[in-house]
Specification:
Elements: E1 2-8, E2 11-17, H1 22-43, H2 48-120
Antiparallel strand pairs: 1-2
Length: 127
């Protein structure tokens, strides 16, 4: 475990983090500090705890909205996958139908050729 110092609402905090996550934790702390600064600019000095709670609620609100968007995108992805599977099944059915139609046409052509060969008297073969 590594430790870094972050500043939130003007106070220093020593935080533990996984190795390699130091930069990310610093960015998170800077983002949160920025939110507190923004709220302080809008509402003035309304108390450190209140500013911190308001900033935390803003983050939670964004997280909740992001979760709703992710759920919607996951549902859309499921629908697209289902549509793709249905289209693939239709394409397979169409391919089978076309193959069957071609085989049937080839059989009819073969039978017609045999009939024509028989009526000509066997002198000239067609096909």
């Amino acid at each position: 475990m590594n430790h870094i110092n972050v500043t939130i609402n003007g106070r220093q905090y020593r935080m533990a983090c996984e190795e390699g996550q130091e930069e990310r934790l610093l960015q998170l702390a800077e983002d949160f500090e920025s939110r507190i600064g923004s709220l302080r600019g809008k509402f003035g000095e309304i108390g450190d705890a209140r500013l911190t709670v308001m900033a935390a609620l803003m983050v939670c609100d964004e997280l909740l909205d992001a979760g709703v968007r992710v759920s919607g995108l996951e549902e859309e992805l499921r629908a697209l996958r289902d549509a793709r599977a249905a289209a693939a099944e239709r394409a397979k059915s169409t391919q089978v139908a076309v193959a069957n139609a071609l085989n049937s046409a080839a059989d009819r052509i073969e039978k017609t050729t045999q009939v024509l060969n028989g009526t000509i008297g066997g002198g000239v073969a067609i096909g």
